[in-house]
Each structure stands twice: as C-alpha cells, then as structure tokens.
C-alpha cells in the first residue's frame, strides 16, 4: 500500500497533536524542545561518585588503573595494599558533610537555572537505592543514604531551579555488558535487564526535567534501544511534557539527533549552530571529578569562566558548568568562589544572558573579545576586556545606528545614564565612550545594552 505525501504529512501532524511519538528519529526529533531549557541558559553539572574517594587523576580512575596506566598504578602501589580493589573505596565514600540544602543555596546564588547530578557514572555505582544495582549503590554501601533523592528534594523545595540527571548507559566492568560486547552487540541482556529498567526507575521515582545520557559510544542506538525508550519517555512517562534530552544515545547519534546536542565534552564551536546545543565544561580543566592533586593554574579563573559563558550563549548554546564534590560531600572553596563570582556577575548582567537569543552577528568584526546576544529589538554587547583609553570600537553594530536612528547605549551596572556612542564616518566603526571604571558595578566583563531608536 502506498500513501500520498499530503497523507503522510497529515499523519505526522496528527501524531504530534496527540502527543504520540514513534520510535524513529524523524518522529522523535519533531518533538519541540521544552522552552524552559533554552530560556535557562546556565546549568550546574555535578560529577560525584566512588571516584571521589581516590580523587586522583580523573573520574576514570578505575578504568585507567585497570588499563595499567602508570600514574594510577604507582598511586595504588604507593598508598594501598596489594589486594585492595576498587570496590573497597566505596566504604570511604561517606558524604558525612553532605548538606543538600547548602548545595541548593549555592547553586541558586550562582545564577544557574538548572542542576544535573550524575545518577550513575561509568563505574556503575548508583547514587540512589536502585533495585537494579544490588550492593553497589549509595544506600547499600558508603553513605547509606539516597544522595540523589535528598538533592532533588532540596532543590525543588528551596529554589526555582530545574533538576536533572546524568546517566551512563554503559558500565566498564559489568559482566552482562562485557558479554554483549563480546557478542559484537548482537545480544542485549545488559540493556534489557539493567539499563532500560534502571532508567525507567529513575524517571518514575525522581521525575527529572533533564535526562542527560552518556556512555553510548561503543554501540549503535539499536543496541541501546534508545528509540523505544525515548518514545516511552515522550509519550507515557510522568515527565513527558517537560523533560529535555541530549544526543548521546548511540555511537551513530551524537550531534545528529536528540533534544539538544552536546557533540563532545567542552564543545564550544565559536559560531552559531542551527540546532540547540550545550557546552558541558569543567572549572577544573583536566577532570570532571574532584582531584586532590590539582594545581591552582589547572582551574578556570572567573574571567575565563565568564568568557566561556559569553561565547556559548552568543552562539545559541547553553552552558553546563561542572564541579566535582569531595567524598565527604563538600564543594571545595575554590569551586564555591567561582560559582559565587558568576552569580554576582549574572545578578548585574543577566539580562544579556537569560531568555536571550543569538543576534545576526556573534562576535564583533573589529574588536576581539566582544560577543553579542539579543532580545529584539535590544542588542547586548558583552565586552570581555575594558577598552584602552575608555573608548570601544565596534565593527558590527553600525546597522543599529543607521537611518538617523536615535540609538541609546547604556552599560548594565552603571547608574550614570547613557553612554556617548557615534559612528566614525571614516571607518564606519561605532565608538562607545565608557564611563569611569570606578563607577561601574560589574567586574570581569561588561555589557552594553544597545536600544535602537525609531
């Protein structure tokens, strides 16, 4: 039987109206991205698990140790007995200072609008009392608490933040996964009996507003049964109307399908993308998990963090800023300082970030370190470096001053009124005279609000 194109289009439209998405990428990708996510712009990522106990090298500690990478082998030989196993670390994952209300307060003050916790990383340790992870979860070994549930409650009860969950599809040394891989992924016992039930348990118990998938890279989406799961998520689950998903659902999927694209860790293309994307990045330049052996110069400065924020938002992305808590359940002062600095900056300049859109130009054509966002008709120029002699020259803003428009230029955090701005006839650059820097409230970066006249 054949169908005409109009019939197929009508069928697709009816499917969407009825909220029934088919287990195909064409159908799933037609689902509109819930608009809260694009408006939010800024999120906090938390990598926390048993790897926070050795807190050496990275959150891939177990895998690198088993692969006999020299720094990890030496670390274990120098500090632990020969018969010590990775599972032995779990008893020291104590979380004795974990205060989820304190965390929620910090994240709210950071200016973030959503928080994503690792529910389970590649080590397989579950941060909730999962019935699919017997004796390898936070309730059975370690802190003997539902760490995930406590944070979900704290965020939802005391803030306006959205709460989401990271979940790794694969587990390094799970025997069912090893068996499926040995069978060249022609069998799917690991997916059928572990992963799909586990994800449904997470969704039905904690109702995350983001489901951030990872660990998909060794097998196709057909092995992971991603299409079938996402159809259930969008059609039947308790979060079907507001959940947001990413693109890590199979080795053939990244940067091609999904609610928003992550493409790669720390992805920051520097240009506008046609599809919504997210820059998941770290304050610690080398690791997602907490590292005791980190040096100060291995952390982003506040200026570097705000620079990454400006670049990302200007190009249409969201930024997901990762910090790694300690095994005791604390967020180290340096991470706190960076997040609070960000919150201070956003409290002054947030109009250029939240609910903004990409402008027709992303970074200025003449002066480097100037990135644009917009809320039609207003255009914001985020200036990362204070200009020499207090005069900034913009190469991409002339159109905002054309046709005799009375264009207003102000600086967020400056109470001294309009700034002098004019087109330099000989160069077609817009020259903006900055105020006395001592009179400006903002630090690290400054935002010009450009409002075209009628």
Automatic annotation (TrEMBL):
Entry annotated with the keyword Cytoplasm: no
Biological-process GO terms, alphabetical: fucose metabolic process; glycoside catabolic process
SMART domains: Alpha_L_fucos
Annotated catalysed reactions: a neolactoside IV(2)-alpha-Fuc-nLc4Cer(d18:0) + H2O = a neolactoside nLc4Cer(d18:0) + L-fucose; a neolactoside IV(2)-alpha-Fuc-nLc4Cer(d18:1(4E)) + H2O = a neolactoside nLc4Cer(d18:1(4E)) + L-fucose
GO cellular component terms listed in the entry, alphabetical order: lysosome
Entry keyword annotation includes Hydrolase: yes
The Glycoside hydrolase family 29 N-terminal domain, residue ranges: 12-351
Coiled-coil segments: none
EC number, as in UniProt: 3.2.1.51
Record keywords: Glycoprotein, Glycosidase, Hydrolase, Signal
One Pfam entry name: Alpha_L_fucos
UniProt cross-references to Gene3D superfamilies, sorted A to Z: Glycosidases (3.20.20.80), Golgi alpha-mannosidase II (2.60.40.1180)
Annotated InterPro entries: FUC_metazoa-typ (IPR016286), Fucosidase_C (IPR031919), GH (IPR017853), Glyco_hydro_29 (IPR000933), Glyco_hydro_29_CS (IPR018526), Glyco_hydro_29_N (IPR057739), Glyco_hydro_b (IPR013780)
Gene Ontology molecular function, alphabetical: alpha-L-fucosidase activity
UniProt site (May be important for catalysis): 280
Signal peptide location: 1-19
SUPFAM superfamilies in UniProt: (Trans)glycosidases
Domain Alpha-L-fucosidase C-terminal: 362-451
Function (record text): Alpha-L-fucosidase is responsible for hydrolyzing the alpha-1,6-linked fucose joined to the reducing-end N-acetylglucosamine of the carbohydrate moieties of glycoproteins.
Family: Belongs to the glycosyl hydrolase 29 family.
Record's protein name: Putative alpha-L-fucosidase
Organism: Tribolium castaneum
Lineage, opening ranks: Eukaryota, Metazoa, Ecdysozoa, Arthropoda, Hexapoda
